[in-house]
Amino acid sequence: MTTTIGAEEEFFLVRADDRSVEPAGGRVVARARRTVGDLVSGEFHEGQLEVRTPPCEDAGELHRHLAAVRKAAGEACGAEGLGLCATGTPVIGGAGARVLGDHPRYRAGVRQFGTMLDDFTVCSVHVHVHVPDREVAVLTANHLRPWLPLLVAMSANSPFFEGRDTGYASWRTVVRGRFPALSAPPYVDSLAHYRRLTAALEESEAMLDANIPFWDVRPNPRVPTLEIRVMDVPSDVADTAALTALVRALVLDGAERVRRGDKGPRTCGELLRAAYWRAARDGWPGSGVDALTERVLPFAVQAARLVDRVRPRLEECGDVERVAAFLRRLDEHGCGAQRQRASWSRRSRPADVVDDLVAATAGTGPVSPA
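^ thats the sequence. predicted structure below, dont judge the formating
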């Protein structure tokens, strides 16, 4: 039986006039739910919303679900005079980038981290892979740790923040990286070790809740999945589906190694931190730190090594061509950050970047501007 997958995507809601973020999440979610029910929900800020899929057997099914729920959310936005925008950080700011969503956990986070959350306006894609055994899940995360910076580079889609080019391909990764316990998970020897660490971090107040860690890989607290949270939200739904397929293959490969007694490489935390930073700065088609070899290698070389490693799993799930097509798109057009900068270079207005992103999010415009 194929291991099921799921995905969650977060989006900004942008105004039609000045393309700034608008705090209309509650209204848009209520409209969209008439069509797709609880597959759409609010997010940390009122200028955002989240869509999700049910568990899916294959990446094609996941692609279809995401396209449908994006369409419903986009139509709900249109009814409110807004656009649905897939980018890791807001290209143009606005009041909606600062209005807190209505959830006790969000308010608790603000009390605990204060001003650090003032510009925490980010949109991600979260991938879920069914791993029912929690012990296997936390040890599988050890095998994923060295590959997380590559996933950052592949998905980087946040070069702009509130009207300016940050110089980074994934500014979202930089914003997240300054928080304690909000990046790569630590290496753990067992589920018991994992639980001791999260309990200690909660007591230190570096983590809000030991049961809901915000590391980039975690056993989901509510469903029996390993959740990968490291990536910017792609503007192209096909990229989300391909990244989900690649992540599933990586999880399946890691879980099999765990079952054979391999707890994963003890990758140096500082080296991994440097790899994250380099991937966030340069994105695809750049070079970055390969945490396994401790060398700086082109991301294309690292990706080829990853595909070789997980090819049997990609073949098993029927995902070889889907991932190959995604890598061809990266080679031809670069990551999302490259595409956003291409929009900027054509007309030199932040509003034009937003317009291209809204069109790409809806699947009605060019994902890769000339």
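The first strand starts at residue 5 and ends at 15.
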